[in-house]
Design a protein that fits this description.
The protein is mostly beta strands. It is built from no helices and eleven strands. The radius of gyration is 14 Å and the shape is globular.
Length: 118
């Protein structure tokens, strides 16, 4: 599985960005997907995750710090997992990584930088 993130950049506080992670090599529908972030000097932290469920069986969860501002979604047809980030704050600045898990194996992308500054 190869994961490629995109959509990062520089944005002012209160602004929005949409991150995308495109997968290849397998069908995304088999994988639990997540977004993590890591800022300098900090451990990688879980931001949002989404399971393999469809419809009412789909479960999303978020870190407390991003609840109500970030939304994770997946497009099975295109093997894409996205993270819509609204009302961004300086503390959201970090490298964001997407993650795919199946059968005890975890795959990571290379990360995309998000910087929130005025």
């Amino acid at each position: 599985v190869q994961l490629v993130e995109s959509g990062g950049g520089l944005v002012q506080p209160g602004g929005s960005l949409r991150l995308s992670c495109a997968g290849s090599g397998r069908v995304f529908s088999y994988y639990n997907l997540a977004w993590y972030r890591q800022s300098p000097g900090s451990q990688r932290e879980l931001v949002a995750e989404i399971n393999t469920g469809v419809g009412s069986r789909q479960v999303k969860s978020y870190a407390e710090s991003v609840k109500g501002r970030f939304t994770i979604s997946r497009e099975e047809s295109n093997d894409i997992v996205s993270l819509q980030m609204n009302d961004l704050k300086p503390e959201d600045s970090a490298v964001y990584y997407c993650d795919a898990k199946v059968g005890g194996i975890t795959y990571w992308g290379q990360g995309t930088q998000v910087t929130v500054a005025s």
